[in-house]
Amino acid sequence: TDFRWFIFLGLTVLSIFGINPTIDYYSNYFGKDNYSNNPEKLSEIQNLKDKSLTLGLDLQGGIHMVLELDLVDLLINLVNDEESMAGHFLHILHGKTPSDLHRKVMDVSLILYAEHEFNASTFTARVCASTMSDIHSCVVAAIGSLRGPLHGGANEKAMELIENWKSKDEAKSNVLEMLDNKEKIMGFGHAVYSIRDPRNAVIKEYAKQLSELADDNTLYQVADEVEKVMADEKNMFANADFFHAPAYFYMGIPTKLFTPIFVMSRVSGWTAHCMEQRANNRIIRPSAEYTGVESSDWIDIADRS
Ligand code: COA
Predict the structure, then answer these.
(1) Is 216 a catalytic residue?
(2) Distance CA 48, CA 292 (A)
(3) 247 touches 105 (CB < 8 A)
(4) Does residue 156 have its Cβ closer than 6 Å to ligand 1?
(5) Whose CA is closest to atom 24 on ligand 1?
(6) Coil/strand/helix, residue 72
(7) What integer is the mean pLDDT of 27-37?
(8) pLDDT, tens digit, for every residue of 153-177?
(9) Could you please report the per-residue DSSP string of 80-106?
(10) How many CB atoms lie within 10 A of CB 76?
(11) Which atom of ligand 1 is nearest to the CA of 152?
C-alpha cells in the first residue's frame, strides 16, 4: 500500500515542480491547464480557482494511473459518454457503463466526502495556504493528513477489519475482544459529533440496497452487527467511513482505492478553503504553552546517561 501511496503522492509532488505526468497523460482527454508548469503562477490568488477546478480531474487521473501500474496488462479506455465525475470514474474503473444505482451511490459518496469544515486535512491545507505556498503543495500536505487511519484512512482500515469476519457471531465476539484489549474499531467515533454522524445514515442505506442485490450480503450483515455492538457496549456510532466500506465493496472497488477516492472528492473542500484563506490571508501560526521544567542544570554531553 505504501508503494502505491508513494506513487500517488509522487505524482502530485512532481507537479509542484512543473512535471505533471497525470496531466500529460490526460491532456488529450481533458486539455492542458495553464498553471501546472509554472508553480509561481499558482501562488497568485486569481489562479487558485482555475487550478482548483482541474485538480479533481488530475487526482482522478492519478488514481487510474496507480491502478494501471498495478494491472499493467489492462488497457484502460479513457473515453466514454458519462456526464458525471462519478459515472466517469466507475466507467473507467470497470471498463463498462455503471448501473444507475452504482452511479448514484458514487455520486452521493463524493458529495458526502467533499467538504467537512475544519477537519485535520482541511486545517493542514489552510496552514499551508496561509504561508502563500502554491495549491499543489496545499493538496499534498492535506493528503498526508487525510491518509492517516484516524482520518480518511479509516474507510480502508474498516474494510480490512470487517472482511475478516464470516458471520455476525464471529464479528460480535471479535469486536468484544478488541474492546476488552482497548483497541479502536476504525469507522467509529468522531472528534466533533457526539451523538451521531449524519452522513452515516445516507451511506448505510445505500450499502444496504447494494447488499440486497449482491449474491452474498454477509459483509453488510457483519457491518450492521458491529454497529449494534459498538452502540450497546461503548455508546458509539458509526461515522461516514464505516458503511463506505461495504458500499464500495459491493460496487467492486478495490480497498486500496477507498482513501484515494476520498481524496478525489475532498480536494474540492480543501481548495475552497485555500481560496477562502487567501482571500483574507494571515499566516496561521499558533503559539504553544510550555509546561515543562522552568530551568535545569547544564550536564556535559559526556556525562549524560
Ligand atoms: N473504537 C473504540 N474506542 C474508541 C474509538 C473507536 N473507534 N474512538 C474513540 N474510542 C474511545 C477511546 O479509546 C477513548 O477511550 P478512553 O477514554 O477509555 O481512553 C475514548 O473513546 C475517547 O477517544 P479519543 O480518541 O480521545 O476521541 P477523539 O474525540 O479525540 O477522537 C476519533 C476522535 C475520530 C479520532 C476517534 O473516535 C477514532 O480514533 N476513531 C476511529 C478512527 C476513525 O474512524 N476516524 C474517522 C473519523 S471521521
Answers:
(1) no
(2) 42
(3) yes
(4) no
(5) 191
(6) coil
(7) 44
(8) 999 999 999 999 999 999 999 999 9
(9) ----SHHHHHHHHHHTSPPPHHHHHHH
(10) 12
(11) 46
SS3 content of the chain, % helix, strand, coil (to 5): 65, 0, 35
User: Read out DSSP for 197-250?
Assistant: -HHHHHHHHHHHHHHHHSS--HHHHHHHHHHHHHHHHH---B-TTTTHHHHHHH
- Grid coordinates representing 252 are 467492486
Find out whether 76 and 95 touch, Cβ atoms under 8 Å.
Answer: yes
**Gap between the Cα atoms of 269 and 255, Å rounded:** 23
Structural contact between residues 156 and 148, judged by C-beta atoms closer than 8 angstroms: no
Average pLDDT over residues 67-76: 58
Query: Residue 187 Cα, ligand 1 centroid: separation in angstroms?
Result: 9
Q: What is the pLDDT of residues 208-265, one digit of tens each?
A: 999 999 999 999 999 999 999 999 999 999 999 999 999 999 999 999 899 999 999 9
Cell of 47: 489562479
Distance 186 CA to ligand 1 centre (A): 8
190 is catalytic: yes
- Residue 25 has a pLDDT of 45
Closest CA to ligand 1's atom 2: 184
Condensed to tens digits (0 to 9), the pLDDT of residues 102-115 reads 999 999 999 999 99
Catalytic choice (91, 151, 244, 273): 151
- 215 annotated active-site: no
Nearest-CA residue for ligand 1 atom 37 is 189
Angle at 100 between CA 57 and CA 162, to 5 degrees: 80
Q: What is the pLDDT of residues 248-257, one digit of tens each?
A: 999 999 998 9
pTM reported for the whole predicted model: 0.82
